[in-house]
UniProtKB/TrEMBL annotation:
Organism: Deinococcus aerius
Domain CBS, chain residue ranges per copy: 8-64, 71-127
Keywords: CBS domain
CDD domains associated with the record: CBS_pair_HRP1_like (cd04622)
PROSITE patterns cross-referenced by the UniProt entry: CBS (PS51371)
Signal peptide per UniProt: none
Domain of life: Bacteria
Protein's name according to its UniProt entry: Signal-transduction protein
UniProt keyword annotation of Zinc present: no
Length: 142
C-alpha cells in the first residue's frame, strides 16, 4: 500500500513570514508551482497558493509588496510521511484541503496535492478526496 512518502514532492518551496506577495509569486513562476509554505522556526505557519494571491490580493488591488502572511491560510494541517495514500485522501476530504505538507519526525519533508493522488497513486483515493474537497466550506485551503 503506497504511503505519502511514495507520492510526495520532496523539499517543498518555503518562505519566511516576511516574504512579500511579489517574492512568492516570483518563486511560483520560477519553480512552476502553485503553492508555497510559510515557515517559522521549521514549523509551517501558513500556506499560500497562486489562487490565494489572485483572489485575496490582486482582485482587490492590494500592493505586491504586502507581506504574504496577510493572505495565507493558517492552521496548516499536516500528515506523517508514513500515512497511507487512502488515509490521506480521506483526511484531505474531511479537512477540505487540496494540499498537505508531509512531515517526518516533526519536520516538513514534502508536500502532497490532490493532483499527486490522481497522477501518482494507483487507487481510487483521489476520487474520495475530491468528493470531500468539492463540498462547499468556510475553510478554504486551495
Amino acid at each position: 500500500m503506497p504511503t505519502l512518502r511514495d507520492i510526495m514532492t520532496p523539499n517543498p518551496v518555503t518562505v519566511d513570514p516576511q516574504a512579500t506577495l511579489q517574492e512568492v509569486a516570483t518563486l511560483m513562476l520560477e519553480q512552476d508551482i502553485g503553492a508555497v509554505l510559510v515557515m517559522e522556526n521549521d514549523r509551517p505557519t501558513g500556506i499560500i497558493t497562486d489562487r490565494d494571491i489572485v483572489v485575496r490580493a490582486v482582485a482587490y488591488g492590494h500592493d505586491s509588496g504586502t507581506p504574504v502572511t496577510d493572505y495565507t491560510t493558517g492552521d496548516v494541517f499536516t500528515l506523517d510521511a508514513n500515512t497511507s495514500v487512502e488515509d490521506a485522501a480521506d483526511e484531505m476530504g474531511r479537512q477540505q484541503v487540496r494540499r498537505i505538507p508531509v512531515t517526518e519526525n516533526g519536520k516538513v519533508v514534502g508536500i502532497v496535492s490532490l493532483g499527486d493522488l490522481a497522477v501518482r497513486a494507483n487507487s481510487d483515493a483521489d476520487e474520495e478526496a475530491l468528493k470531500g474537497v468539492s463540498v462547499p466550506s468556510e475553510n478554504h485551503n486551495s
